[in-house]
Design goal:
This protein has about 190 residues and is of the alpha+beta class. The chain has one domain: Nuclear Transport Factor 2, Chain: A (Roll), CATH 3.10.450. It is built from seven helices and five strands; from the N terminus they run H-H-H-H-H-H-E-E-E-E-E-H. A hairpin with a 7-residue loop joins strand 2 and strand 3. The chain is globular, with a radius of gyration of 17 Å. It starts with 10 loop residues before the first helix and ends with a helix.
Amino acid sequence: MPWAAHASESADAFIRRITGETLQKVKADRSLREGNVNALMKLVDSQVMPHVNFRRMTALSVGPAWRRATPEQQARLQEEFKLLLVRTYAGALSQVSDQTVLVKPPRAGQEDSNLVVSTEVRGGGGGEPIRIDYRLEKSGDAWQIFDLNVLGVWLVENYRTQFAQSINAGGVDALIQALSERNKSARKT
């Protein structure tokens, strides 16, 4: 679908489109369904990540240390954090079988700079639906994701707690090193 067709898209329609297209691609491609990590990472990088505001997500996750980081440190933090998120999302997609996503309309009165769209992932062997909330912001005519809540845990808040430990132990460089090591060890598995 051409970009212009998405220009006035509502937040819930945006989430419905992104999740629907991603699940459809996984279900249609045997290597993706079989959990090919490299293929899944490419899919996530091309399908989902262009719709994520990494600068904002990284800054929120790093907390006050972000403002003290040099532009080079900020760039490295974004690079390592993006790789971590791509791997995490690819791992979740490797579990997809027959799931569907129910997207709920946003609550009235929310601002375009911090709007939450709730979804439920259903199927995949029964059980309770998994609730995933997307925190979005409007950037020009496009929506961008800057936080996720899976099973009651906001991603930014969770990482801020983890990142603070590294920052407190050795500053921003220690966090960059910890993320780099985590990403390198994930590549080996």
